[in-house]
Amino acid sequence: MSDLKIENLVKNFQGMDRPAVNNVNLDINSGQLVAFLGPSGCGKTTILKMITGLFQPDNGNITLDNESLLPIPTEKRGVVMVFQNYLLFPYMNVNENVGFALKMKGVNKSIIDERVKEMLDLVKLPDIGLRKPKQLSGGQQQRVALARALIASPRLLLLDEPLSNLDAHLRDEMRELILTIQQKLNVTTIFVTHDQEEAVLLADKIALIFDGELQNFTSPKNYYEKPKNIKAAKFFGGVNFINADIVDNKIQSEIGFCEYQGDNIRDLNKKLFLTIRPENIKISKNNEFDHNSYQGKITSVIFSGTHTRYKINVNNVHLECSLQSVGIDNMKEDDQIFVHLPKDKIWGMND
Amino acid sequence: MGGERLKIVLSLTPPLLIIITLFFGGIFYGFLQSLGYQPAIGKYELNFSAYYNVMFSERYAKLFWSGLALNLWVSFASTFLAAVFALFGALAIRKTFVGKTLCNFIYSLNLPMPHLVVAVGMIFVFSQSGLLARLAAQIGMISSPGDFPVLVRDKYGFGIILAYIWKEAAFFFIILMSVLQSLGENFEELAQSLGANRWQRFRYVILPLVMPNLFSASIIVFAFSFGAYEVPALLGVIYPQMLPVMAFEFFLNPDLNARSEGMALSIIIALIVMILVVFYFWLTQAKIRKD
Ligand SMILES: Nc1ncnc2c1ncn2[C@@H]1O[C@H](COP(=O)(O)OP(=O)(O)OP(=O)(O)O)[C@@H](O)[C@H]1O
Ligand SMILES: [Mg+2]
User: Fold this and answer.
1) What's this model's pTM, rounded to 2 decimal places?
2) Which residues of A touch B290 (CB under 8 A)?
3) Measured between CB atoms, does A153 come within 8 Å of chain B?
4) Residues of B in contact with A92 (CB under 8 A)
5) Which among A49, A75, A134 is the nearest to B291, CB-wise?
6) Integer Cα distance of A277 and B213 in angstroms
7) Does the structure show a pLDDT above 80 at B284?
8) How far is the CA of B203 from the centre of ligand 1 (A)?
9) What is the CATH number of domain B35-115+156-290?
10) Residue A193 CB less than 6 A away from ligand 1
């Protein structure tokens, strides 16, 4: 199978004052579906192009199954990239497009025909083989591009923003399809996105990249509950950040002493930040909590259907809390309340 | 709606009338002449004898058919070679600074250069008394300039072909550079990631992508070189003689009867070119319909 290892990868471009890709290290296991997530210009496509061989890295190594890819030319790597804008060959019909990779290998025509049919079935597009790309919808083009990439059984499949050109409901459908196909063929897959939700819905692991630097590489769940730094937390919708110090192995924050259970306590600096998801904060008019309970004042209440969002001022630190709208006793603006940050939900970060 | 359209038609009528009168009127009168209608020398009868004379009479048939063959050869060879040179040139330097500089150079220098000037340049450089011949003799590659191969005013039209390649390759080059520019490299990169090697990327990606533009440019160039007079007049030989030159010599003939033959020949050339243009429009239309 195909384990991908990226070591100390660096790429510089002329005219940029920082490396486009800066010392990235990643270990991707065979059969995994990994997302490269980050804002526009952070270097996602550049990394993909280095994996395919369309760009040569300035430093570092990329190995697939313990064999370096760098000396191998693109066309022999068995790494197939699906570009953001599909790029179906306009002068070929769907069958010819899908069969392209096998034709390049000199495979027998009858075998190509057979495989093309299989692939079109796989992407749930039978019976359109004779159409030209112009006669297809965006979603259909995307599927044809996927079929064309998969036909030669690539060792590694790279999808550059596979969903960003589709409208909302097509996106859901396509996401499902990618997931099913990826599981069925068990092909190691990297896809690029700048949509955090998409990454969470699809990926086994997410590589978060800012300004060419890998921030974190871990499961979607960890990004919500155990972010590595404030930037990562914010990218995943984190809003609550509290300054704190470690004093005598205890955490003393700007809103008071804080009990902490996180498994990273030893890695934390003396100065740190605490964070907690809005949905994990509890509030009450009475002090009914046995630890991490702080007094505060509600500064605003925003009802948004199933949930209600409270903004609370605790010792001049602004926290947000999101509660299910049903069954909460009515707390309103300017009420004095107690805020509870459960010790198993609060998380410390260095920066 | 109907009124609008009428207005447009009415406002277009005056210029259209002028164009129709001048252009088609001229052609029509020329056509009448080719049919033998020459009031100046008292001939009013219409027949096809001028056409027959040009193509089949003992006096002209050999000249006409050899000229037609030369015309086809020169136009095909120069168009094809110019396209090939331009394609490989453009592919080789499209990503370099040289490519952009060369493009600008051709835009500003070669395109406005009259064919006449290029033809004279050819004589200077390639004829047996030209620069290359003297240089070769000087450095002892040949014993005298007269041993230099006949590349200008030769019976195979090499000089003419060279001149056309020189001019037309620049035209192709500029068209190809802009097509390649607008295509970008994405298709090639994609093909490469799908396993296509260099040759396959050329054969299955670049060529089909540039072919429509290359083809229509070829038809324009072919039609032009088929009907143009000045380059073959300067660089050609007396026999075989390209058709436009032959037509022109009919007109130079003091015998007014030769007028009809000259016109008939001109109309034949125009017809061949016109068929090509119609074919060209049909092709582009077919392409638009397909898209
Ligand atoms: N061929 C190139 N030459 C010079 N600079 C480049 C080149 N390709 C990318 N860059 C620069 O490198 C940086 C990273 O680009 P990249 O395309 O990898 O971003 P990305 O994360 O894919 O962004 P997006 O989400 O917008 O596609 C950008 O600042 C870009 O301008
Ligand atoms: Mg990108």
Assistant:
1) 0.82
2) 132
3) no
4) 208
5) A134
6) 59
7) no
8) 29
9) 1.10.3720.10
10) no
Residues A144, A206 within the same domain: yes
Ligand approaching nearest to the C-alpha of A208: 1
Q: Where are the domains of chain B?
A: 35-115+156-290
Q: Token pair for residue B188? A: 């090639």
pLDDT at residue B289 above 80? no
Task: Tell me the residue range of the domain where A189 lies.
Answer: 4-225
| Tens-digit pLDDT profile for residues A74-93 | 999 999 999 988 899 999 99
Predicted local distance difference test score (pLDDT) of residue B124: 86
- Match 């296509």 to its residue by tokens: B196
User: Which SS3 state, helix, strand or coil, does residue B140 take?
Assistant: coil
Q: How confident is the model at residue B165 (pLDDT cuts 50, 70, 90)?
A: very high
User: B231-267: string of b/e by CB count within 10 Å (b at 16+)?
Assistant: bbbbbbbeebbbbbbbbbbbeeeeeeebbbbbbbbbb
Answer whether A91 sits within 8 Å of B209, measured CB to CB.
yes
Q: Whose CA is nearest to atom 12 of ligand 1?
A: A20
Distance from Cα A79 to the centre of ligand 1, integer Å: 20
A324 falls in which pLDDT band (50, 70, 90)?
confident
Identify the CA nearest to A202 among candidates A212, A193, A211: A193
Residue nearest to atom 7 of ligand 1 (CA): A13
Q: Is the pLDDT of residue B291 over 70?
A: no
For range A12-26, the mean pLDDT:
94
**C-beta of A45 in contact with ligand 1 (< 6 A):** yes
The alpha-carbon gap from B46 to the nearest alpha carbon of chain A, in Å, equals: 51
Is residue A199 located within the same domain as residue A172?
yes
pLDDT above 80 for B168: yes
Alpha helices in chain B (DSSP H): 2-19, 25-34, 49-56, 61-93, 97-105, 115-126, 131-138, 158-183, 186-193, 198-201, 207-227, 230-235, 243-252, 258-290
Separation in Å, CA of B208 to nearest CA in chain A: 7
Distance from CA of A183 to the nearest CA of B (A): 22
Last residue of some domain: A225, A247, A273? A225
